Amino acid sequence: MITVTIWLAIIGFIDDYIKVIKKDKSGLAGKFKVVGQVGIGLIVGLTMLFHPDITVRVTKAEAIAKNYEIKETFTTKYTQVGKADKEVEMAYVKTTLTNVPFFKDNNFDYNVLLSWLGDNASKFIFILFVPIIIFIVTAVSNGANLTDGLDGLATGVSAIIGATLGILAYVSGNTIMADYLNILYIPGSEELVIFAASFLGACVGFLWFNSYPAKVFMGDTGSLTIGGIIAVFAILIRKELLIPILCGIFLAETISVILQVSYFKYTKKKYGEGRRIFKMSPLHHHYQKLGMHEARIVTRFWIVGIMLAILTIITLKMR
């Protein structure tokens, strides 16, 4: 997490330096930003796959049945009401398992997507898994960057997301809660709660001065880093498939830009004149053009962000 923070902060700082100090409004070329995001995504993906300490806990029987790479085994006791304690053999394994929201049996293994390779699927999983991680890191980082357009918008939304990730990290690192909620127990993820708390504190402290009318601005140094932190945090606790819900604001902002640009290019090519879906993109600027006050837009986006965060937490039991 510290590596991700420093890596993306440097990329964002270079962009801001070119814009502010060098007086070049174009900033760092987009391709160099993407190269930096892809680079850190590659590091995260390979680390997740090959670092021996990044494991999840499953039953030993499941580990053997699904041919997981077992790192450690142990026996644990489960207390049953009115019955004798039940002993179960457990194992810490290297796997690409992740949690899927809304499904009863909510564990999904990326290896399934390569099942046509038979027993060789696990050997070639990096071909699929690493690009997925790169895409998630790049998409969320850019989504946060696009959201940073109004005073306090990206900061407030990110604080809400950070608090939610902290809760998810806590339950994922607590054996009792992980068993009760039927989610993957991630050894060491309780340490991420400290990082989440620091992240939340930094966002709230910054929001004190960034709220309307803002006295300080985060620029790409902040927004690119915040997006990368959120993406990698979710990946580490195996909740990356919750990102479309939890980071729904980032997703809406990104989609609004994609739709606007695509439709403009399509209509220009077909009719000789570019047309727009929104008055302006990203989405928050559309509401500005409709005459809504900046502070109201930001507050309403925060409210939506809180509702999405609650929905994300509810998915732990809503299946």
Counting DSSP H or I runs of 4 or more residues, the number of helices is 12
Report strand order across the widest sheet: 1-3-2
Low-confidence stretches: none
Per DSSP, what share of the residues sits in E-state strands of 2 or more residues?
5-15%
**Helix share bin:** 55-70%
Instruction: Report Rg.
Output: 22 Å
Order of helices and strands: HHEHEEEEHHHHHHHHH
Organism: Portibacter lacus
EC number: 2.7.8.13
Subcellular location: Membrane
Family: Belongs to the glycosyltransferase 4 family. MraY subfamily.
Which secondary structure elements does this structure contain, and how are they paired or packed?
Layout: H1 2-20, H2 30-50, E1 56-59, H3 60-65, E2 69-78, E3 86-94, E4 97-99, E5 107-109, H4 126-147, H5 153-172, H6 175-181, H7 190-210, H8 219-236, H9 243-246, H10 248-271, H11 283-289, H12 294-314
Antiparallel strand pairs: 1-3, 2-3, 4-5
Helix pairs in contact: 1-2, 1-8, 2-4, 4-8, 4-10, 5-7, 5-8, 5-12
Pfam families: Glycos_transf_4 (PF00953)
Organism: Portibacter lacus
InterPro entries: Glycosyl_transferase_4, PNAcMuramoyl-5peptid_Trfase, PNAcMuramoyl-5peptid_Trfase_CS
Can you tell me about this structure?
By secondary structure, the protein is mainly alpha-helical. The protein has one domain. The strands form 2 sheets. Strands 1-3-2 form a 3-stranded antiparallel sheet. Strand 2 and strand 3 form a beta hairpin. Helix 1 runs antiparallel to helix 2, helix 4 packs across helix 10 and helix 5 runs parallel beside helix 8. The longest helix is centred in the C-terminal third of the chain and has 24 residues. The mean pLDDT is 92.
